[in-house]
Automatic annotation (TrEMBL):
Signal peptide: none annotated. It comes from Reinekea thalattae. It comes from the Bacteria. SUPFAM superfamilies: Actin-like ATPase domain. Pfam families: PilM_2 (PF11104). Gene3D superfamilies: 3.30.420.40. This is Pilus assembly protein PilM. PANTHER family: CELL DIVISION PROTEIN FTSA-RELATED, ETHANOLAMINE UTILIZATION PROTEIN EUTJ.
Amino acid sequence: MALLYTSKPKGLLGIDIADNSVNLVELSKHSHLIRLECYASAQLPAGAVIDGLIHNEIVLAETLQQLILTAKPCCRDAVIALPDSAVIEKQFELPARLNKKQRQAQIEALIAETIPYPIHDVAFDYWLALTQPETEANQTFSVAVCRKQQVQSREIVLAMAELNCIAIELQSCAQWRSRERLTSLSCVNLALGVERTELLSMTGALEVAYGLAARGLVDGSN
């Protein structure tokens, strides 16, 4: 299969962990072509994941390893989903003159004032909000905050399955990317004999995993 490419295609795995299942999708990119390489799903035993919180990392990693054996993905780099219910989102307005280090320190201080658990127990990310104040003296940043345990447990599961955690992303962001990109299937080379109608129907279950695997391949995300 690799002989079809003049250079090694860039690939990415999307891993979606639900309360009762694990879903995997691999997409690759060569030039302007996005290719569906493989996909697989497996049921989880009751209690392994409850309300998005991982309770049994070993069982989850073993299930993911079985999925990898079944799907035989080409790459080991993965993006994994975090449920929106695990995240608190805020917006903070900061002086535009702050450098990156000052900005992060200010955001961390604001999180400590407004989030209902200790700052040492949280992981957070921030980005420039789409809507900005009229004055150029300030900038608005969107901030996503969750408990470190939610992030660390996912990193541990991927490491146990011998996968590289490239990013952790909200399920809603992955769903948005999946829906937007599936409106134009001409950009997707449907391998594996998958028909377009089948891809559309399967994305009900694999929508988040598909959107995660598309991260960076279609919109330049890191």
